[in-house]
Write a structure and sequence with these properties.
3 helices; 166 residues; 9 strands; six-stranded antiparallel beta sheet; alpha+beta; Metal Binding Protein, Guanine Nucleotide Exchange Factor, Chain A
């Protein structure tokens, strides 16, 4: 292969990689539903956590003890948010992760509910409240995404992910 051929091949691979990343980043459209629509679709406790920013009691979610290989998706719109490989036992009583599956799938805002600023994170597609992120997690990120179990559904790796809710 000539030097020119190698450079053309390299540029071609770079273009394909850039296009794939762009598609992955734009793989979903924002889902806008009214609170009334969400109330009809979700159980009351899930609705309260996801769209009223309620918090479930620590230790109440079976997902805190979930150890199987798979993906955690938003319980409202089914957008994949976390991989089981990023889950760890934080000892808090809530499912905890050190990084989201894809950075573009979570959004952030500052929350002053307890007077001190905290970073709240939510599903970037439907806006459903997931939990708060803290800087006391394990390597490699030192982040702890402390999630409400009611805001997630677990899908085993051997199962097909649900279609995104319309």
């Amino acid at each position: 292969m000539t030097r020119r051929g190698f450079i053309a091949l390299f540029i071609g691979f770079a273009a394909v990689a850039a296009t794939s990343r762009a598609r992955a980043a734009a793989a979903f459209a924002v889902l806008a539903k009214s609170k009334e629509e969400w109330k009809r679709l979700l159980e009351p406790a899930r609705y309260a956590v996801l769209f009223e920013e309620d918090t479930e009691p620590p230790g109440s979610s079976p997902l805190d003890q979930e150890k199987h290989d798979g993906t955690f998706v938003c319980a409202a719109c089914f957008l994949p948010l976390f991989d089981s490989k990023g889950k760890f036992d934080s000892g808090t009583g809530w499912p905890s992760f050190f990084e989201p599956l894809t950075a573009a799938h979570v959004g952030y805002k500052t929350d002053y509910w307890l007077l001190l600023p905290r970073t709240e994170y939510h599903c970037a597609r439907c806006g459903g409240h997931q939990g708060h992120v803290f800087n006391d997690g394990p390597a490699p990120t030192q982040k702890r995404f402390c999630n409400n179990g009611l805001a997630l559904l677990f899908v085993a790796r051997t199962e097909r992910l649900p279609e995104l809710r319309e």
